[in-house]
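User: Can you write out an input/output pair for a complex, sequences first and structure second?

Assistant: Here is one pair. Inputs:
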Amino acid sequence: MNDDYLWDKSGPPDPEIKQLEEILGTLRYQPKPFEVPAPRRRSYFPLLAIAATLLIALLAGGIWLRVRTRDQVPQQQAAVPEKTPIIAPAVEEKTTPTPKPQKRLAPREQNVAVYHKRRNTPPALTQHDREEALAVKQQLMFALRLASEKLNLAHRKTQSMSPANQIKNQHRVG
Amino acid sequence: MAATFDMLLTSPKETTERESAGPRVELVLVRAVLDGDREGFAQLYDLYAPLVHGILLARVPRAEVDDLVQDIFLHAYRKLHTLRDAAAFGPWIAMIARNRAVDFHRRSKETVEINDELRGSDMHDSKAAEILELIRNLPEAYRETLVLRLVEGMTGPEIAARTGLTAASVRVNLHRGMKLLRERLGFMEGL
């Protein structure tokens, strides 16, 4: 067997190998064109769909908030006069003589203004309410004092118990 | 860039030069393809299709080989960015071809082989199919090397350079495989 011919086709050809080459050569690769696939274009459809969904959700949220705030403003405006009719007369007299032309505010500004007004003005009470509140306060203070005294008494009683009994009891329990 | 490829591919092809130039050509072509040159991959296909064809022919039925060659190159084109060493394109695609052949046998049924044998109507073709079957029954280490040498007409140094095997092991595989094949061919003639 000619090893050189088998290895790199150099030297005199081996007749048997040559014959095998001829027979098996019929199975050799036949060149065929290879279609290199075109580079895939990145599809932006999913991204666009997500963006559109978010946009729609934001718009819907915005519209809902807007509608909700419009509904709340008249309720608050209506509630304010009911709670603030009783104001100290001295203060009212000072503020009323010079009526200024009121600037018309936008609904949102009106809402903010009402909120600040409600926060800054102290709750106005009648004389009767004040007296009642003072009486309740005195009763509460009395109840607190009474409870405190009772607690002190209980504390003193627990302290006055003899330590021998404690040990005895512990011993019994243990 | 195309001119560079032509120069590399059409340079005088002494065996030793081909061995050293092979990976250099691969390197340039793979880098070009990764840079977006699709024509570079067509050249890689022309260079390596016989290797892939031979590897598959040693393992799967003839009727399936051509389609699998296309599939493998398509897969290689899509996964080329995962190839770490651009000069190792040959061993990489050879491994893809071997793995694809294993997958094929996992999925295929026994009837495929029978159809393949019935296909050979020509006398010469049936003789070739018979010898190929003998080669396929040789130990795995010899069959791929023998198919690449006797069917695809590649030389030992070319097989070594393309598959990434050492020249010594290719030489041993060729020698021992040929010896076994002769024995089996003699056994057939005796019948």
